[in-house]
Give the backbone structure.
Amino acid sequence: MNERASPNFSTADITAIAHLYRGELYRSTVWRTRLDATTNWAVVTTGLALSLTFSSEAASPLPLVLVGLLVAVFLYIEGRRYRYFDFWRIRAHILEVHFFGPILRGEGVRVDNGWNETLYQDYRAPALHITFLEAIGRRLRRNYGWIFLIQVTSYIGKLLIHPTPIASLDELFARATIGPVPGQLVLLAGLVFHATWLTIAVMTYRSRRGADRARPSRQARDSVLDLARGP
């Protein structure tokens, strides 16, 4: 047991692990940047659709409908990207907690919990640690849920009050009509579309990783901030 707690890591071994950490951190940063890119695409296209929809009294709400479908494509792409970001981030976090953590506490390199063997097996047989639906749910709760909410609110506002408030329910259906597709069907399709995202966000929230983990209590003072301020 003591041999596992204090393994014979040479200076070259520790340097190699430090470089390994840098590589894993770089990979997670690259995928984090890719996540930001798709989110930016969703925000920009939503803003463009809003500009077109409210540009004039005769402007159609169709751009908001189309951009909703486009943002769904971005969400699909981002869900796939998030799985890889999570994969690289977990490896970096393991090294931070189990390799650098004991060193910072003055305990040297410790492997008594077997973190090095677990990480080695992950290198031998890599596997993603989050499902696609869980990744979609996370991105919905963090970013895309708000984007969809803005689209829905704008679309309903366009139908109800722009350019003038509606006088009857028939007028609402008439404004929602897209070519040969009746307004009732368009609104029903929109309801199903957004209810699907809401369901995914709620279901994956309940099954999210670490949902049953006890959260540390918030300190009255931020000790890290105090340390950074210096004496």
Remarks:
- The two ends are 40 Å apart (CA to CA).
- DSSP finds eight helices and no strands in the chain.
